[in-house]
Fold this protein.
Amino acid sequence: MSRFLFYPHVRGVISRLPEHYKRRHLRSRLPATIKYIQGSDEPWKRAASDNALYPSEAFELAPDVLFPEDSQNALWGGEGIVRGFIELKRTHTRCPKTWGPDLRQHIFYSEILDRWMIILVSVTALKQIENLKGIDNYILESRLQKMN
């Protein structure tokens, strides 16, 4: 339960909010549990890419995702920039590589604001906007962590 519901001067404002917005606020307060790989008791695991043995702890680490300041001016849909290494097939050497979202400019119409907007969006955010049938529903329904 949110602590804001106990303040009498806020109850009037909260009662006017849509139910899905209240649920989203309460859900965003809960910590998200992410499991990248199923746990096992084996001390070593074999990688699928190069079939080499690595310690189990290397598979349980989450990738470091960077969100630059430019991500606050666009809709990235929860995506970020990830740094890593890629192995060249010819020489079998590891080279540093950076992966980022595929960004595109798109024109949206907001029924709430009653105006057209040109927004920089990632392809995943664009698919989510299409699934929710509009930019207004995307902003109301998606979590704040995905909005960047």
